[in-house]
Amino acid sequence: MSTAEGPLVVGIDSSTQSAKALVVDVGTGRIVATGQAPHRVTTGAGRESDPRDWWSALTEAVRACGPAAHQAAAVSVGGQQHGLVTLDAEGSPVRPALLWNDVRSAPQARRLVAELGGPQVWADRIGSVPGASFTAAKWAWLAEHEPESARATAAVRLPHDYLTERLTGRGTTDRGDASGTGWWAGPTEAYDDTVLELIGLDRGLLPEVVAPGEVAGTVREGELPFARGTLVAAGTGDNAAAALGLGLRPGTPVLSLGTSGTAYAVSTRRPADPTGTVAGFADARGDWLPLACTLNCTQAVDRVAALFALDREAVEPGGSATFLPYLDGERTPNLPHASGLLTGLRHDTTPGQILQAAYDGAVHSLLDALGLVLDADADPAEPVLLIGGGARGTAWQETVRRLTGRPVRVPRAAELVALGAAAQAAGLLTGEDPAAVARRWGTTDGPLLDPLPRDEATAERIAGVVRDAGALWAED
């Protein structure tokens, strides 16, 4: 191992399933050590985790980094967004945390939208129209279904807030993660007392919002292998951390290919979409991170491959098949009651052509989302950054190139959430913009794939099927 050129920092990604830790050399961006540990998520009607499991996984992941973690001068935590953590007066969880993908609060979300005056009011006042994932809806659910838990709550935190507080002993959050609660307003960059009154939440239970570039605290004595007094950054939510990890400049489009798909970009303009398709998130730097999500991406395509016993790369060109892979309903377009739809079959249609149609349908939905996220004056020739589990798949790359007509860049760097947290920690030491730190580290270095002529015929065919089939999934 070569000698570090600068101080070391630790970036942590506490995701839905596990904790990952990276020790990074500030001078070069070289990853000096890594660690990972899983934690538990319940199954069934709800999705919950004991926050103490996140802490145990974090400590295990950091310890796996060895002595390098103890040498770190700063640390930051990127965490899963939206989760509701309720703590008692001693700082212990009142109950397991309600996670972002716990949809039991959907009725409360619909009620809150109506009670404040409708989607347009929410978009103008908060920046987003809350759905079941937003923390405000989860608190409303808790107050309605478990009032004794709500009464016992002395502090409300998001997942990354909880972990940062375990490090420092101080209750803090940041604007990026706070913007996913539904009670932090983008126009004022402050907690909204009207929304808090609507959901029956005392402002005194909420953490202080630490400004970008400020220190959240220092590591207190405890079981972690950090030196006492190590600086702790504000941390942020996972999407904002990944944006830092990519060093995004405004207007650069990002497509994240996972079980679900995500499209986002940094913007200097505060988003306010009354349809609820685009979440008006803040980023962790002072700009904005409009984001849209599709429910069906790699998992839906892999399911089609499995049905035909095909390798996921065994696509074939041609044919007239159109497949809308809405196997779990869909958010973009907003068709929550949808199912998968296959049309345009002929006698000579091959399984490989149907598989390609599934890729086309999934990417078309993502590109619809991207069109809503990007500012009107964004450069249409800017390369798309392709990240996530599917990004290195040739069929995914070729489909994105063909349906966008844009060049595509596939960053070699993995663990972008942890890298973004590390860049935020590095910024505390150097005074740099964390995104500039990530750019200096070259986190987006990777193959740049030339654009292909845009396949207008396929895009128009899919759009027509979506338009004509909408009545099939209308809510009864």
From TrEMBL:
The entry's active site is D238 (proton acceptor)
Q: What is the purpose of this protein?
A: Catalyzes the phosphorylation of D-xylulose to D-xylulose 5-phosphate.
Q: Which family does it belong to?
A: Belongs to the FGGY kinase family.
Starting at the broadest rank, the lineage of the source organism is: Bacteria, Bacillati, Actinomycetota, Actinomycetes, Kitasatosporales
Indicate which residues the UniProt annotation says bind substrate: Q81, H82
Name the chemical reaction catalysed here. Answer: D-xylulose + ATP = D-xylulose 5-phosphate + ADP + H(+)
List UniProt keywords, sorted A-Z.
ATP-binding, Carbohydrate metabolism, Kinase, Nucleotide-binding, Transferase, Xylose metabolism
Domain Carbohydrate kinase FGGY N-terminal stretches: 9-245
Enzyme Commission no: 2.7.1.17
As recorded in UniProt, coiled-coil segments are none
EC class of this enzyme?
Answer: transferase
Give residue ranges for domain Carbohydrate kinase FGGY C-terminal. Answer: 256-426
GO molecular function list:
kinase activity
Q: Locate the site labelled Important for activity.
A: D13
Record protein name field: Xylulose kinase
